[in-house]
Amino acid sequence: MTPGTRVVVVGDVITDVVAVLTAPLAAGTDTAAEISLGGGGQAANTAAWVAAQGFAVTLVGAVGDDDAGRDRAAELARAGVDCVLDRVSGVPTGTVVVLTADGERTMVTSRGANLRLTAEHVGKALAAAPDAGHLHLSAYTLLDAASRAAGLRALAAARERGLTTSVDAASAGPLRRVGARAFLGWVRDVDLLLVNADEATVLAGGLDPAAQGRALSATARRVVVKRGAAGAVWVEGRTTAVSVAAARRVAVVDVTGAGDAFAAGLLTAWLGGASASAALDRATELGALAVSSVGARPPA
Fold first, then answer.
1. pLDDT tens-digit series, residues 85-125
2. Is the pTM of this model over 0.70?
3. Exposed/middle/buried for 9, CB within 10 Å: 0-12, 13-18, 19+?
4. Of the four, 51, 113, 195, 287, which is 20 to 30 A from 258 by CA?
5. Hey, what domains does the chain have and what are their CATH numbers?
């Protein structure tokens, strides 16, 4: 696939309120922080990073019919993302408060209009993208019952059209709540499944990363286990060689969106014909770039 072939990304559009704490959070009193407001959401972030790599990309999602929704759509358009967003009246655009310190983050989430994403909207959006070659799904869409039908429709429509597919497992907590068996059933036969270390443990147990990847290869054709500072592992099938990439050593400012940048680097390299090793290298490069600045989107 070349940069002229469209990637369709389905999932969350969020306003991020990021607080980079200067000290551990002090309960019941003040904690000083640098606070910024901007675009977020796993799918929206990934789409912005994909666009920054020169690929045509369409984001399919839902926002409120409010100033925040209009702001999120406008900034994504400026980043080169074609947005097909359902504007939902009476429901606010999703918001996440991100508390980050010492390379870790805690998120307080209101998913808002993201919960109103429908299978009908997704189906129409995909039908309107005849040049699409790949579908990438944020699993947050699957992990909430209210939007699950939209995520399942996205994967089904992609298969019907012969698109390649990828899913980012999103978050360990919601995965635990829905259960590994259900989730793996929803994403069965995707071309690429991305999981971080915690998500891999939820889905495959406490194995080493290569063994986790091989266990998950019963569901996905390729599995990438993201391990933060320990790098990443690519497993393709149960018996093929494992590719490993070391993490880039950079000063960590804010980890918000790092996994989304990683996903975009991985996808665009792989879709462009890169080997597993080269795709991992590109993914870790963009992940390092993401953690080097505040916010979830590509630096201006």
1. 999 999 999 999 989 887 677 889 999 999 999 999 999 99
2. yes
3. buried
4. 113
5. 6-13+40-94+111-291 (3.40.1190.20)
